[in-house]
């Protein structure tokens, strides 16, 4: 591969947004697609998505939720069934009007989410309390039209999972909603090395068709917040709109209580923003496509090849995802640069000297520390380092989030923070849409979440000074 | 779940096509979607697809092919680039004309296959012989418009994998084409318990845009053939049409040699047809969502519950996929019936008597044989039985295929076979399109494949009596 051509990477410490796009393109994670608003996820980016899928799919199945596949195309009339739902989505729809060479008598919507088509089937399939709970998830592609692409973060097509459960009681549904929310927070924490704030969204910010929406919010290095996954309490809204009833134990009709929850390739955008520096990406080991790369430093040498192959096999056997870079024709500097841009956590350098002394030099991507280790101890040592890097990534992001979370009850202070450094602001708010809209218009900050364990306080709304009981998280959102 | 209501299944020995649809609906593998031509893959059917994906994905990655994701929507002009390609696909396209509330200035095609959009990106990304080979696969959804749905076998939307590789030489590309073909045959053989015939397709039957198409063909119980996976030699057709060149080692421009290969959810249709009987499905253990189901036979009993749970844990630990049916309120007959329709290979019955004697009764789904085994030996014994069932499924289908493969050089005999019992017919053919078309019009039989190892013969075409050198497989196709 012609991978070692010189690629000048933009600086993260310069224009953050330019760096973000540049590092995604140069690490070959993704690229712009020919259709406006769409993107291509290249193998290096897709391997990250596969790691996320494998991790979450196991948690989803352990909870008893089964995967299925529902159709891409939804009859237009289905979307119209739930009033808020259709109003929320109609500006973003892609519409098929011609199929099989003919103009369709009814337009078909490319799914922006699958509530309507799935619940129509639930209604056909499930008629008794014995059929509940319904626990179904799907991994698929979604279209919500966007005019301008921002790789991973804002694209007309994205990949996600959408879970759709139905229960006999609201309390049972609620347990599932909170389980999904915690699963998302756990995925960020343990896999992506990111610290999220979980909580409930305001009425304005909730999902179109839901009674309540919960989300995990992550603070990005530029002080803006990313909504990283949502879990919705749909109440009985869809069941009522579709007239779906099941017979309960007493033979009475019941509208099932429903929830839906989704996590998308947007999360990869957050991962990139948080885990990188002027040299490129710096991936937490648990989600990295390759956790280590072996670089033979000397020119071609048969005994070195054997040494490298043996090391590779040993690492693979112990479960480390490892690549070998055999392109000894390129300069060492270019090779280092290439793997640094890609953010591979550990670089294992082996030259003639290392081989003769039965050693390997390990260089960490996160802090550039180097040490030389006995080949016998490399596997155990590498595993310790990888674990440490994973923990430190999370600790760094947690500290960053804490350092950039401000608490204020003074609106001029609020405005000053938003205009200077941004970040999360925790402020009392009266929960009126008017104040929320005015704060947004004046500062760009929107309500992000109210944490589930937020205590009741007695104070005054940051904006209108009327009574307020809860301290919400505000931030400018992606 | 209300799973044990009486469900009268249509007989396979009656109308085969009615049985096929009925067993898919009643085993809850799939259902018709609200949009004509589309289907829903329910959890039980999707678990089969997940098993196929896991099996093939490992083989694909071992070969060095990476997964990626390319966009669903393709600009109309892309499809027009390759003449045969667009002519082959245009009658089956779904077209997006409205997006984001506006009429689009250029229509977007919902991908019927991804050659054009992928190779446009290859052209942007890869410029040197060092970039070759390009080895990329994707798992995604495809739309090819159909008016009438035949569950799994003919649907407007289906799921598949599509591999798209590019090489410096035709011979290297050819190796990949044949590797993919053999991978598909192996998946049928070792996972799905089915015997396929592999070979090259005729000019008429090849993929639109390919120089050559190879496929694996499987004989169904009604004597029709199912095309079960295809691998295409695209030559330099797309590279030339798109003007994609890379510089070779001497610095000269080269159009890369390309191949594409696909395997879809259609295969599940073949699996159902071959592996079932009047009682429902009978799944080969390697692909079955559950390989065994444990049925406590007595009414509720705490010690029995513990016994069942222990057995379940033991089986899960040894890697057996196992379900427990605790619905002791329903009649035993209905419960047996339910799991038979679903085709679970082994039923483990435990009553009070079995528990007291530390025994389990195993009933095989394929031949209904029952035996009672010591609980200590159940894991080892079950694994032997499952292995045997898998091998016997393949042996049965191989024998069926052989018994229904006819060889004739007499056209009246050919017509008689096609009008009476169908099956594969091996006949000499002059390889002219005219004879092929006339045979099809008169008998419904099309050429399926010429096996790769078919010896050259010297004889006369079954239709026109002119010189013919090869004995092709003919059959009526699904």
Question: Number of helical segments of chain A?
Answer: 14
* Strand order, sheet with most strands of chain A: 3-7-8-14-11-10-9-24-27-23-22
Indicate the proportion of strand residues of chain A. Answer: 25-35%
The main β sheet of chain A shows up as: 11 strands, mixed
Would you report the number of β strands of chain A? 27
Instruction: Provide the gyration radius of chain A in Å.
Output: 25 Å
Q: SS-based structural class of chain A?
A: alpha+beta
Instruction: Give the integer mean of the pLDDT values of chain A.
Output: 95
Structural shape of chain A: globular
Multimerization status: homodimer
GO molecular function (chains A, B): ATP binding; proline-tRNA ligase activity
Function (chains A, B): Catalyzes the attachment of proline to tRNA(Pro) in a two-step reaction: proline is first activated by ATP to form Pro-AMP and then transferred to the acceptor end of tRNA(Pro).
Subunit structure (chains A, B): Homodimer.
Main location (chains A, B): cytoplasm
């Amino acid at each position: 591969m012609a991978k070692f051509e010189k690629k000048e990477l933009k600086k993260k410490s310069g224009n953050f947004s330019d760096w973000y796009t540049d590092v995604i393109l140069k690490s070959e994670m993704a690229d712009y697609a020919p259709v406006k608003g769409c993107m291509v996820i290249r193998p290096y980016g897709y391997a990250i998505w596969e790691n996320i899928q494998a991790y979450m799919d196991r948690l989803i199945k352990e909870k008893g939720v089964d995967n299925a596949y529902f159709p891409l195309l939804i009859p237009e009339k289905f979307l119209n069934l739930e009033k808020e739902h259709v109003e929320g989505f109609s500006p973003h729809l892609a519409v098929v009007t011609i199929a099989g060479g003919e103009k369709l008598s009814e337009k078909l919507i490319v799914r922006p989410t699958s509530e309507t088509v799935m619940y129509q089937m639930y209604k056909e399939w499930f008629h008794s309390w014995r059929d509940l709970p319904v626990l179904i998830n799907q991994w698929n592609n979604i279209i919500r039209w966007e005019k301008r692409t921002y790789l991973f973060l804002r694209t007309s097509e994205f990949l996600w999972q959408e879970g759709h459960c139905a229960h006999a009681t609201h309390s049972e549904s609620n347990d599932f909603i909170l389980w999904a929310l915690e699963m998302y927070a756990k995925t960020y924490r343990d896999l992506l090395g990111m610290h999220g704030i979980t909580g409930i969204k305001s009425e304005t910010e909730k999902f179109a068709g839901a009674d309540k929406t919960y989300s995990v919010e992550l603070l990005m290095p530029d002080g803006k917040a990313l909504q990283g996954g949502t879990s919705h309490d749909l109440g009985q809204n869809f069941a009522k709109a579709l007239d779906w009833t099941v017979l309960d134990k007493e033979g009475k009709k019941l509208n099932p209580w429903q929830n839906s929850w989704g996590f998308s390739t947007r999360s990869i955008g957050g991962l990139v923003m948080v885990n990188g520096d002027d040299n490129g990406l710096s991936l937490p080991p648990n989600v990295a496509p390759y956790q280590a790369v072996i670089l033979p430093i000397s020119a071609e040498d048969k005994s070195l090849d054997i040494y490298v192959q043996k090391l590779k096999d040993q690492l693979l056997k112990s479960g480390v995802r490892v690549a070998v870079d055999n392109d000894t024709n390129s300069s060492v500097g270019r090779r280092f640069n290439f793997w640094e841009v890609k953010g591979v956590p550990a670089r294992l350098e082996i030259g003639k000297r290392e081989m003769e002394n039965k050693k390997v030099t390990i260089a960490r991507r996160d802090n550039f520390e180097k040490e030389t280790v006995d080949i016998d101890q490399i596997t155990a040592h590498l595993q310790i380092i990888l674990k440490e890097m994973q923990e430190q990534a999370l600790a760094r992001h947690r500290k960053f989030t804490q350092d950039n979370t401000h608490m204020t009850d003074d609106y001029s202070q609020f405005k000053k923070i938003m205009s200077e450094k941004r970040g999360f602001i925790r402020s009392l708010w009266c929960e009126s849409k008017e104040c929320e809209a005015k704060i947004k218009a004046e500062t760009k900050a929107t309500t992000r979440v109210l944490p589930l364990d937020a205590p009741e306080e007695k104070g005054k709304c940051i904006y209108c000074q009327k009574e307020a009981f809860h301290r919400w998280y505000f931030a400018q959102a992606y």
